[in-house]
Amino acid sequence: MTAHLLRIGDDIIAIHAIVTDEGVTLIDAGLSGDLGILTAALAGVGRSPADIRGVVLTHGDTDHIGIAEALRARHGVPVYILQADADLATGAMPARGVKADAWRIGPTLRFLWTGLRRGALRSPRPSAVVAMADGDVLDLPGRPEIIAIPGHTRGSAAIRVSAVGALFLGDAITTRHVLTGAEGARLAPFSDDAPRTRVSLEKLRGLPEARIFPGHGPEFAGTAADLLDALDLRRID
Ligand SMILES: [Zn+2]
How far, in Å, from the CA of 142 to the mean position of ligand 1? Predict the structure, then answer.
Protein backbone atom coordinates (compact mmCIF):
# COMPACT_ATOMS: atom_id res chain seq x y z
CA MET A 1 0.00 0.00 0.00
CA THR A 2 1.38 3.37 -0.93
CA ALA A 3 0.52 6.23 1.36
CA HIS A 4 1.37 9.85 1.29
CA LEU A 5 0.69 12.86 3.40
CA LEU A 6 -0.98 16.09 2.33
CA ARG A 7 -0.78 19.16 4.50
CA ILE A 8 -3.72 21.49 3.91
CA GLY A 9 -4.14 25.01 5.24
CA ASP A 10 -1.12 26.67 6.76
CA ASP A 11 1.10 26.82 9.81
CA ILE A 12 -1.60 28.71 11.72
CA ILE A 13 -4.22 25.96 11.34
CA ALA A 14 -3.57 22.81 9.31
CA ILE A 15 -5.52 19.71 8.29
CA HIS A 16 -3.57 16.59 7.35
CA ALA A 17 -4.75 13.96 4.86
CA ILE A 18 -3.36 10.45 4.55
CA VAL A 19 -3.93 9.39 0.97
CA THR A 20 -3.70 5.68 0.11
CA ASP A 21 -5.05 3.25 -2.48
CA GLU A 22 -7.96 2.61 -0.09
CA GLY A 23 -9.01 6.25 0.21
CA VAL A 24 -8.27 9.16 2.48
CA THR A 25 -8.06 9.64 6.25
CA LEU A 26 -8.20 13.17 7.62
CA ILE A 27 -6.39 14.11 10.80
CA ASP A 28 -8.36 17.01 12.30
CA ALA A 29 -10.90 19.07 10.41
CA GLY A 30 -9.76 22.70 10.56
CA LEU A 31 -12.33 25.44 10.24
CA SER A 32 -15.74 25.38 8.60
CA GLY A 33 -14.54 27.41 5.59
CA ASP A 34 -11.82 24.89 4.76
CA LEU A 35 -13.87 22.60 2.50
CA GLY A 36 -12.71 24.51 -0.58
CA ILE A 37 -8.99 24.24 0.13
CA LEU A 38 -9.43 20.58 1.10
CA THR A 39 -11.31 19.81 -2.13
CA ALA A 40 -8.63 21.56 -4.19
CA ALA A 41 -5.81 19.74 -2.43
CA LEU A 42 -7.48 16.36 -2.94
CA ALA A 43 -8.18 17.15 -6.60
CA GLY A 44 -4.45 17.69 -6.99
CA VAL A 45 -3.90 14.01 -6.22
CA GLY A 46 -6.94 12.76 -8.15
CA ARG A 47 -9.24 12.42 -5.13
CA SER A 48 -12.36 14.11 -3.82
CA PRO A 49 -14.11 14.48 -0.45
CA ALA A 50 -16.17 11.38 -1.37
CA ASP A 51 -12.94 9.37 -0.98
CA ILE A 52 -12.59 10.32 2.70
CA ARG A 53 -13.18 7.23 4.84
CA GLY A 54 -12.85 8.88 8.25
CA VAL A 55 -11.95 12.02 10.17
CA VAL A 56 -9.79 11.41 13.25
CA LEU A 57 -9.77 14.29 15.73
CA THR A 58 -6.80 14.96 18.02
CA HIS A 59 -9.21 16.67 20.43
CA GLY A 60 -12.55 18.45 20.55
CA ASP A 61 -11.71 22.16 20.37
CA THR A 62 -13.60 24.20 17.77
CA ASP A 63 -10.55 25.06 15.66
CA HIS A 64 -10.08 21.35 14.89
CA ILE A 65 -13.62 20.21 14.00
CA GLY A 66 -14.67 22.76 11.32
CA ILE A 67 -15.59 20.59 8.34
CA ALA A 68 -16.27 17.35 10.21
CA GLU A 69 -20.05 17.79 10.26
CA ALA A 70 -20.20 18.75 6.57
CA LEU A 71 -18.26 15.60 5.62
CA ARG A 72 -20.41 13.48 7.92
CA ALA A 73 -23.68 14.89 6.58
CA ARG A 74 -22.78 14.93 2.87
CA HIS A 75 -20.61 11.84 2.53
CA GLY A 76 -21.38 9.75 5.62
CA VAL A 77 -17.82 10.16 6.89
CA PRO A 78 -17.42 8.85 10.47
CA VAL A 79 -15.82 11.27 12.93
CA TYR A 80 -13.57 9.61 15.51
CA ILE A 81 -12.54 11.12 18.84
CA LEU A 82 -11.44 9.79 22.22
CA GLN A 83 -14.46 9.23 24.45
CA ALA A 84 -13.26 11.80 27.01
CA ASP A 85 -13.50 14.61 24.41
CA ALA A 86 -16.69 13.44 22.68
CA ASP A 87 -18.96 15.84 24.57
CA LEU A 88 -16.57 18.74 23.98
CA ALA A 89 -16.66 18.09 20.21
CA THR A 90 -20.42 17.70 19.93
CA GLY A 91 -21.18 20.65 22.19
CA ALA A 92 -22.88 18.49 24.84
CA MET A 93 -20.23 20.02 27.10
CA PRO A 94 -19.67 23.78 26.72
CA ALA A 95 -16.43 25.05 25.18
CA ARG A 96 -13.57 25.15 27.64
CA GLY A 97 -12.94 28.35 29.56
CA VAL A 98 -9.16 28.41 29.52
CA LYS A 99 -7.22 31.63 29.81
CA ALA A 100 -4.27 32.43 27.56
CA ASP A 101 -0.92 32.59 29.34
CA ALA A 102 0.35 35.50 27.27
CA TRP A 103 -0.25 37.19 23.97
CA ARG A 104 1.19 39.71 21.58
CA ILE A 105 -0.93 41.83 19.32
CA GLY A 106 0.48 40.79 15.90
CA PRO A 107 0.36 36.99 16.23
CA THR A 108 -2.95 37.15 18.11
CA LEU A 109 -4.59 39.22 15.38
CA ARG A 110 -3.18 36.88 12.72
CA PHE A 111 -4.68 33.86 14.53
CA LEU A 112 -8.04 35.57 15.00
CA TRP A 113 -8.11 36.83 11.42
CA THR A 114 -7.31 33.36 10.08
CA GLY A 115 -10.16 32.01 12.18
CA LEU A 116 -12.63 34.62 10.97
CA ARG A 117 -11.62 34.25 7.33
CA ARG A 118 -11.89 30.46 7.45
CA GLY A 119 -15.17 30.28 9.35
CA ALA A 120 -14.27 29.75 13.01
CA LEU A 121 -17.44 31.49 14.17
CA ARG A 122 -19.77 29.22 12.24
CA SER A 123 -18.22 25.79 12.80
CA PRO A 124 -21.12 23.36 13.12
CA ARG A 125 -20.34 20.70 15.68
CA PRO A 126 -20.42 17.07 14.60
CA SER A 127 -23.86 15.78 15.54
CA ALA A 128 -22.53 12.24 15.95
CA VAL A 129 -19.06 10.92 16.74
CA VAL A 130 -17.49 7.48 17.02
CA ALA A 131 -15.66 7.02 20.31
CA MET A 132 -12.16 5.62 20.03
CA ALA A 133 -9.95 4.32 22.85
CA ASP A 134 -6.29 4.40 23.80
CA GLY A 135 -4.44 1.76 21.77
CA ASP A 136 -7.01 1.48 18.98
CA VAL A 137 -5.73 0.97 15.46
CA LEU A 138 -8.51 2.30 13.29
CA ASP A 139 -9.58 0.43 10.19
CA LEU A 140 -9.00 3.47 8.00
CA PRO A 141 -6.50 4.32 5.25
CA GLY A 142 -3.02 4.46 6.81
CA ARG A 143 -4.19 2.45 9.87
CA PRO A 144 -3.94 5.33 12.39
CA GLU A 145 -2.97 4.22 15.89
CA ILE A 146 -4.48 6.14 18.78
CA ILE A 147 -2.42 7.01 21.85
CA ALA A 148 -4.17 8.92 24.63
CA ILE A 149 -2.15 11.94 25.77
CA PRO A 150 -4.45 13.75 28.23
CA GLY A 151 -3.41 17.23 29.28
CA HIS A 152 -4.40 19.86 26.72
CA THR A 153 -7.87 18.38 27.06
CA ARG A 154 -8.94 15.24 28.89
CA GLY A 155 -9.48 13.44 25.60
CA SER A 156 -6.42 14.59 23.65
CA ALA A 157 -4.89 11.97 21.37
CA ALA A 158 -1.64 11.44 19.55
CA ILE A 159 -2.27 9.85 16.19
CA ARG A 160 0.50 7.65 14.87
CA VAL A 161 0.54 6.87 11.15
CA SER A 162 3.54 4.65 10.49
CA ALA A 163 2.62 4.45 6.80
CA VAL A 164 3.80 8.05 6.41
CA GLY A 165 6.27 8.03 9.31
CA ALA A 166 4.36 10.70 11.20
CA LEU A 167 2.94 11.54 14.59
CA PHE A 168 0.15 14.09 14.91
CA LEU A 169 -0.01 15.69 18.33
CA GLY A 170 -2.84 18.20 18.02
CA ASP A 171 -2.45 20.90 20.65
CA ALA A 172 -0.34 18.94 23.12
CA ILE A 173 2.53 20.99 21.77
CA THR A 174 2.99 23.91 19.44
CA THR A 175 5.97 24.88 17.35
CA ARG A 176 4.77 28.46 16.93
CA HIS A 177 2.71 29.93 19.73
CA VAL A 178 -0.44 31.31 18.09
CA LEU A 179 -0.69 34.23 20.50
CA THR A 180 2.97 35.24 20.91
CA GLY A 181 4.56 34.04 17.68
CA ALA A 182 7.35 32.41 19.74
CA GLU A 183 9.12 29.75 17.69
CA GLY A 184 10.26 26.37 18.96
CA ALA A 185 8.58 23.31 20.42
CA ARG A 186 6.74 24.00 23.65
CA LEU A 187 3.62 22.92 25.46
CA ALA A 188 0.61 24.55 23.83
CA PRO A 189 -1.43 27.40 25.30
CA PHE A 190 -5.08 27.02 26.40
CA SER A 191 -4.29 23.71 28.10
CA ASP A 192 -6.37 22.22 30.89
CA ASP A 193 -3.29 20.67 32.49
CA ALA A 194 -0.02 21.30 30.64
CA PRO A 195 2.21 19.44 33.16
CA ARG A 196 0.06 16.38 32.55
CA THR A 197 0.74 16.70 28.81
CA ARG A 198 4.47 16.56 29.51
CA VAL A 199 3.95 13.26 31.37
CA SER A 200 1.62 11.92 28.66
CA LEU A 201 4.17 12.65 25.93
CA GLU A 202 6.69 10.33 27.59
CA LYS A 203 4.54 7.46 26.29
CA LEU A 204 5.73 8.38 22.79
CA ARG A 205 9.47 8.51 23.55
CA GLY A 206 10.38 5.17 21.99
CA LEU A 207 8.47 5.64 18.72
CA PRO A 208 10.54 5.72 15.52
CA GLU A 209 8.43 8.15 13.47
CA ALA A 210 10.58 11.15 12.56
CA ARG A 211 7.97 13.71 11.46
CA ILE A 212 5.87 15.39 14.14
CA PHE A 213 2.97 17.67 13.34
CA PRO A 214 1.34 19.99 15.88
CA GLY A 215 -2.11 21.49 15.30
CA HIS A 216 -0.53 24.94 15.03
CA GLY A 217 2.95 25.70 13.77
CA PRO A 218 5.37 24.07 11.35
CA GLU A 219 6.46 20.44 11.39
CA PHE A 220 9.00 19.33 13.99
CA ALA A 221 11.62 17.28 12.15
CA GLY A 222 12.66 14.60 14.59
CA THR A 223 11.39 11.75 16.72
CA ALA A 224 9.32 12.01 19.87
CA ALA A 225 12.53 11.54 21.86
CA ASP A 226 14.09 14.49 20.00
CA LEU A 227 10.96 16.51 20.70
CA LEU A 228 10.93 15.69 24.40
CA ASP A 229 14.59 16.63 24.70
CA ALA A 230 14.00 19.90 22.82
CA LEU A 231 10.73 20.81 24.52
CA ASP A 232 10.80 24.25 26.02
CA LEU A 233 8.78 23.76 29.17
CA ARG A 234 7.86 27.40 29.33
CA ARG A 235 4.51 27.90 27.68
CA ILE A 236 5.30 31.56 27.20
CA ASP A 237 8.35 33.60 26.32
ZN1 LIG B 1 -6.04 24.32 18.31
Answer: 23
